[in-house]
Amino acid sequence: MKSILRRRPSPALVISLIALFVSLSGVSYGVATGSIDSREIKNNEIRSLDIRNNQIRTRDLRNNEVRGIDIRNSTVQGRDIALNTVTGEDVREDTLQKVPSALLADSATTASEVSTLKIIPQTTVAEGALPVTLATHGPLTLLGRCDPGGASTEASLAVQTSEDNSAAGGQATNIDPDLDAAEPPFEIALLPDDPAPAGRSADATSAFASAPSGKAFTGQVALYADASGAGSCMFHGHLALQG
Fold first, then answer.
1. ∠ CA 68-74-77 to the nearest 5 degrees?
2. Fewest CB within a 10 Å sphere: which of 3, 141, 155, 211?
3. Element holding 242 (H helix, E strand)
């Protein structure tokens, strides 16, 4: 009996065995019941490979905690952004390229490069009356004349300038490359005075003029002459004004 008593474990050994059993059974119980929390996990030990793919969700992230440094560059795409949520203040302006219309505006560096369309309405001039002004642009004036001709009424166009060294023309044989202010209006087109049915004739001609100051025009003008009755001429067309 004494030999059996001599082999009994010491109180310290018993207490150690009990503590070991409790600790082991506690971990096993926690694993079995799914109750492991952050207290059972050593800091900085959970790694990416310990997490199943596609398992971290929005509810697992604290609000306002994901920052720019946490997102790989050039991975956020348009489909990741809600419609109509990016505003002007979210965009760095000096990184934007110009829209096509702005590029076209840059090519027009001065106002002199912008053209304006001038419509010449139907204008009637009596035969033998003073020339009528059809259009004026800076020093340049386009005149319409209606004169008696040899066989019928003659309709003609002329350009007058108040700036020396201007140029004007219309038909191929009616061009003056050096028109000065002191000179009379230069005829750029003449409707032929050949006899026409019922005494009427019509034609169309190009018209252009320019001045050293940058003012210029070019366009098309129609001329009509009617020798019947009192006789008259009519003009209409359009000009592109520049400068």
1. 95
2. 3
3. strand 232-242
Q: Which residues fall within 8 angstroms of residue 163, CB to CB, at 6 or more apart? A: 138, 139, 140, 181, 211, 212, 213, 215
- Using pLDDT thresholds of 50, 70 and 90, give the confidence band for residue 195: low
Contacts of 36 (CB under 8 A, 6+ apart): 30
Task: Report residue 132 as tokens.
Answer: 């009528």
Q: In the structure, what pLDDT confidence band is assigned to residue 234 with cuts at 50, 70 and 90?
A: very high
3-state secondary structure of 12: helix
Q: Taking the chain, what is the end-to-end CA distance rounded to the nearest angstrom?
A: 130
Kindly report the pTM of this predicted structure.
0.54
**Displacement of CA 77 from its chain's centroid (Å):** 25
Indicate the residue type of 172: A
139, 131, 161, 142: which is closest to 233 by C-alpha?
131
Kindly state the tokens that stand for 238.
């359009």
Q: CA 36 from chain center: how many Å?
A: 61
* Nearest alpha carbon to residue 222 among 207, 210, 208, 212: 207
In 171-227 the beta strands, taken as DSSP E runs, fall at: 175-179, 186-190, 200-210, 216-226
